[in-house]
Amino acid sequence: MFFKRRILQAEYFDAMDRPASEMAEAYAMLAFVNRVCLLARPFQRLLPKMLGGERCRSLTLLDLGAGDGWLGSELTRWAAKRGWDWRVTNLDLNARALSLSNNGHGVVGSALALPFRDGAFDVVMASQMAHHLATDDEVGLHFKEAWRVAREAVLFNDLHRNVGLYAAIWLLLRWRGAPETFLSDGLVSVRRGWRVKEWRELAGRAEIPGARVWLYSGSRIMLEARKKNAKAGA
Fold this sequence. Notes:
This protein is an alpha/beta fold and about 230 residues long. It is about 40% helix and about 20% strand. It has helices spanning about 20-35, 40-50, 70-80, 95-100, 135-150, 165-175, 180-190, 195-205; strands at about 60-65, 85-90, 105-110, 120-125, 150-160, 210-215, 220-225. The chain has a 7-stranded mixed sheet with strand order 3-2-1-4-5-7-6, with helices on both faces. Strand 1 (about 60-65), helix 3 and strand 2 form a beta-alpha-beta unit. Helix 6 runs antiparallel to helix 7. The N and C termini lie far apart (about 45 Å).
């Protein structure tokens, strides 16, 4: 019963009025967790598989709920090592979070009403963003807006709501000596997470044809979809 339904308890991490030093410290801790949990790995594996190596030589990507732009920075560096040119635009509601980024172009805006034309980016991605939204209607709108501005594909991931991940996050953050507010948020994030069936229903509600939703490594929900008129991969 503890994980049957997602909770809607607010996360302190989302507070817009935190002191700048505290926000920077929180994002530094989040970067540590992202590295340990290999947050960028699914995007590094799945984008080339979905689009093909030749198409990956030059891509424009939009990262929704990008925060300090950590994911975009990781992907840009990874792609550059392969001779690929990936240009990332970071979108977030929090201008101060975006100001921490040293990579990509930052845009302050809502994932529910994207300030971009249809098909503005080759790929639209989001990582662990949807669980910050309060209602299924908001998540469905987030999916729909992402699909609208994607020229070729969307790729999302978020936390899978399960007791194993909850325990792993607790142990990792206790070992690291994370602040209590960050520890609490990490555990709340898992309980705000998702199940595969829930995302499949939301993808259908967002009218994303052929969306594939699955459990990745026992800890994340993945959603990928490619538009029919997308260029064929090499």
